[in-house]
Amino acid sequence: MSNLEQEKQLLEGLALNDRTVVEAIYRDNYPVIQSFILNNNGNSDEARDIFQEAMIVIYEKAVSGNFELNCLLKTYIYSVCRRLWLKRLTQLQRYGSLVENVEETVAVEEDLELHEKHNADFILMEKAMNKIGEPCKSLLDAYYLQKKNMQEIAADFGYTNADNAKTQKYKCLVRLKKLFFAQYKNGN
Amino acid sequence: MDEILLIETVERYLKGEMNQQESTFFEEIRKKNPDIDQLVVEHTFLFNELDKQAGIKAFKHNLYEVENKLTEEGIIAKKQLTGKAKVVFLWKKYKRSIAVAASIAGIVSIVTTAVISTYNNKVEKSDITDLMAKVNKTEKDVASIKNSINDNTGIKHNPNPNPGFRATGFLIDGKGFIVTNAHVVNRLKTIYVGNNKGEYFSAQTVYTDNNADLAVLKINDTAFKTISNIPYSINKGNSNLGEQIFTLGYPRKEIVYGEGYLSAKSGNEGDSTAYQVSVSVNPGNSGGPVLNKKGEIIGIITSKNSTADGVVFAAKSKNIYKLIEAVKNSGDTVNIKLPSNTALRGLDREQQVKKMEDFVFMVVGN
After folding, report:
1. Angle between helix A73-92 and helix A44-64 axes, rounded to 10 deg
2. What ipTM goes with this model?
């Protein structure tokens, strides 16, 4: 199997949130990124954060389905982490010239812009979820995020039957929708 | 059509749960009715967002677990490893001036503590109550009834401790080492620890440090099976003011959760081995772990001020490291290995608590 095919498989696994794939990518790439960040005014906690964010960038791309990797995954990850770290350094005002091995990088600016947009949406949704209050939050969380079925939820929350739980869930959804869109329109 | 019915219909439509006829009919309605069409568009968006949320959350959870595994293997460096050994370098460079400065600071601080402490004795020792619960008669009766039931069924191991006092402790090593308060074990002749499932095991004191008010117990019961994967880690550093904290303990016979914040970096009368926290605790909470949101233990509940509201003291967690060091030096052959990683990072609170419950014990005895 060629490298490209192998990497294509990795990305497919990633989109399905396959843990072995996540682990494989970490094993192959983490040491390089960690030493890059440690050598450039960072600490190991920051290395974790940056790598995690890069993983989410790739995950989002993999899920979106139109991830055409025209370089090695390794190069892509390095480029994303490098970009994220430069940005972080500017924010922290820790300037200094970058020490790095001569590594090939690819342009990732567009991908990161998209990622920031996704991230903002994620935070908006989380805020809206936190604002609707209990039991709405747990109810929606159980159904839409943890994907439990209605019978299970009714039993967990103490509703007498699944239909009552369902009605309550829709009421909650109406509230979530109002909050989410109110913020969405303000925030964007 | 009322709104809820409408949403339900839209959801079924989007999930493809409608049959052919129904969905053609619905699409017809959509075309004719711009309001409904708008609603479908909005809902598609909302469901997509919810789906993404679910995906990312699950993915992050996976990331944390992989991180923990690889940190254990040493592929990911542990906390606060900086590239160059800057501190050592600075220390060498400024050793002499630091020494001079330190000796001056020492003199000043001796003077200031002398002055200040004369003012500072307002809080009488008697106002500080430690938080062991005296188990009252009814509860004892209930306990003994329960015990006999358990004996009959023979399911649960229970040496029938019939306790006079109750406090809290938590596991620091799966081989059965538990940390609790020194004032707890000092008062007990026979010690039992009980878990959330109602199983009791006999235990003995390995070491006590009355200064920090901490003690290490070892479960010496053959019925106790070594537990692996302690989910929390023990913080070595200092925590910050205002940090969100939570605690688990046994003010009742059942495990109780409480949350609050770190309100001062020192304990009673400026005791630098402790924090002041604001959290609701009651007798029985003594020895309970105080955790930050990452799932690291930052302290151990010890006492509260009975005359002031919400003034609770907790021994700092770094004292546990000292304690373990002292155990080693005391020539005991026991080998305690503290948990170094938290598996609670990034989980929401309910899941954190669920994962921890089994590791927090009730300490009882006479």
Report:
1. 130
2. 0.83
